[in-house]
Amino acid sequence: MLESKQVAISQKNQSSSVRSQIIPPLLKRALLTLKSKNKPFSLIDIGCGQGDLLYLLKKENYLKEAKVMGIDINKKAIRVFKKKVPWAKAIVADASNLKILKKGSFDFVICNQVIEHLENDEVLILEIKRLLKTNGLLYLSSVLKKWYGLYWHRNKFGQIVVDPTHVREYGSSEEFANLLIKGGLSIKNLDIYPGIFPLGDYFLLLLAKAGILKFTNLKYYYLAHPRIYQFSKKMLFLPIPGYAIIEVVAGKEIKSPLC
User: Fold this and answer.
1) Could you identify which of 1, 46, 150, 216 might form a hypothetical disulfide with 111, taking C-beta atoms 3.0 to 4.6 angstroms apart as the criterion?
2) What global pTM score does this model have?
3) How many CB atoms lie within 10 A of CB 197?
């Protein structure tokens, strides 16, 4: 079990203004801590997609001193990434097998809403630990699901999930945190906030299904139409029964010698 002294857990009932933020709150805090050292740092985004998160981090000045890399298994996404964030290096690779990168290469690793898509989460954590420098930090986020969690998607195993490509959804913060501890990382901070579904998203998805709007990925549609995104996020939000988002900042530290 996860001991209470190992992690500070913050249950958040966030306002709609916070919920609508694209940059995860705990990630912001972790990067601000890194920036406060006023030293250049290396950062990798594992499962970077088209570079949306890195683009926003750069725009809001979180990556001023950073040497940045993005990795994704999707070749088309990486092609877009190279155009959107040309200042970052991009590699097509499997997140569970990053042997092309040297051990201890990065001060900071981002893995945002990726781990739930992978067959072997333990292998991912070990790869992240290998890539981190000593005293490096990991930002990791995923989905928590209570036994009564309810949504309309099912994954390939027939399980109810919020995204049909999810291989798993974690049952508790202890399960999620212990995964990192087992992999040799120490938990610095852990936040949980309610899973919510904006009614604006539902309305746009209905329009797409009816053929009125043409898009296959709502996130990319929002990126192409920022005014619609801002309008949508001002609409009402509904809680998703039994679901929450979990964010963790963990570190790779030198183990103290046994006395």
Assistant:
1) 46
2) 0.80
3) 15
CB proximity list for 8: less than 8 A, separation 6 or greater: 189, 190
CATH architecture of 4-192+240-251: 3-Layer(aba) Sandwich (3.40)
Cβ atoms of 103 and 129 within 8 Å: the answer is: no
At 136, which amino acid appears? Answer: G
Taking only the tens place, the pLDDT of each residue in 213-247 is 887 667 667 767 777 777 776 666 777 888 899 99
Write the DSSP symbol of residue 170: B
End-to-end Cα separation, the chain, in angstroms: 25
Tokens of 79: 């092609």
Top mean pLDDT of 20-34, 176-190, 239-253 is at 176-190
Contact 151, 162 (CB under 8 A): yes
> DSSP of 36-49, one letter per residue?
TT-S-EEEEEET-T
- Angstrom CA distances, 141 to 23, 26, 69, stand at 12, 10, 19
Residues 6+ apart with CB under 8 A from 256: none
Cα separation, 68 vs 107, whole angstroms = 10
